[in-house]
Amino acid sequence: MSLAAHLPVLQVVVPLLAAPLTVLVRRPAYAFAIVLAASWASLAIAIGLYLQVEAQGTLSYAIGSWPPPWGIEYRVDRLSSFVLILVSAIAAVVLPYSHASITAEIEPQQHYLFYTMFALCLTGLLGMTITGDAFNIFVFLEISSLSTYVLIALSNDRRALLASYQYLIMGTIGATFIVIGVGLLYLMTGTLNLADMAQRLAPLRGTRPVLAALAFLTVGISLKAAVFPLHQWLPNAYAYAPSAVSAFVAATATKVALYVLMRYYFTVFGETQVFERLPMQGMLLLLALAGMFGASTVAIFQADMKRLFAYSSVAQVGYIILGLSMGTVTGLTASIVHLFNHGVTKGAIFMLLGGIAVSAGGVTVARIQGIGRSMPITSLGIVICGLSLIGVPGTAGFISKWVLVQAAIERGQWWLVFMIVLSSLLAIVYVWRFVEAAYFGTAPADAPPIQRIRWQLLAPSAVLVAATIYFGIDTSFTLNSAALAASQLFGGAR
Fold it and tell me: In whole angstroms, what is the distance from residue 77 CA to residue 457 CA?
């Protein structure tokens, strides 16, 4: 059997093996090289899997040669291959950035531990995306969550310990809900394989245990995805974590959780069960609008730029849930493409903010006064990404919102088009907070001098800023992939 046939398992094994190796070598330079090589290999594998799915259709890989549903199956379709590329690409870009950023944010003796936890977090996220086993999803979810708790707590800022603890408590509650939901599904079907479970659930839909499982999974996964109002862990986690951690988690963790929600809704339960037999559409619509307007409003009044854009993430998750709530192919396409586009945009923003934090000593409104003149390239990058959050044409965010508007028009919900535009106006206000301080503010006379940003921080950030522009112009990869994935999910590809 050729190496290409083993790509599904290598997607998870490569970063998993990198984690213990970094502990064994301990030296930060070697640990960095190992995890960097693993992340780049993961990206190459993800691209290979995407091309295989394009050529052959859905891939199935039986772990240990035990055929599904008796053994664990890794399953790669259009949606999972798309998300695999997002996660591995962000990791491949953030790691070179982290090599320079953690010197100012993490104690030197803990650098090798950072790379260990980063590799484990990457393993968990990739595993959640590729596995076709319900309990495996839970296991990989816990691997990614536990490593994220440690990554946040590694920061020199003591407030990160409280943020990590809050995330741990909320994350444990979410994980408990998820495992209860999985247990109920296993009780009713006798299988953990998602595809087999979907077939066995067909005659059981509408029964109380199945409905209870749907409820537990929705709440548990929504907490992991920071769906409003279950987002309380997110602002502090993003604000006080090391910059590289904020960038990686903001770009990937909530997106993978939303992917899992889509997987359960459309692959396991089926859109008929979720959207026609239950009032899920109205509930998801209400939560989406609450997140879009509530989180954006809170963001406007933040004095710390990391917290501001953290609340922005909650609002952007609202747009993804909004597309999901429509229960249509176009709406789901908007959710999937925004999942990717927002991941790229928000990763760039937090990397750029990290560069400012290292050079200027902080990212509060008071500290970034006039920074547009002293750090013009970095400030311009944040403005470009801010335009993407607003949905300005020529940026990736515009594509997402345009498809979302199309989905609303298809359903004849013109009032929803108005709400999407109105919420985007709130994004203008909180992005203007940065523009006003950076370009129209004046630094106090007694402010400490701003150091020149290191190219090791700027170059990786520039890659994601360029991607934000590129995917706003050329949609052949993102929009086409999202549309095909949405069609496959609605087509009942189990």
Answer: 35
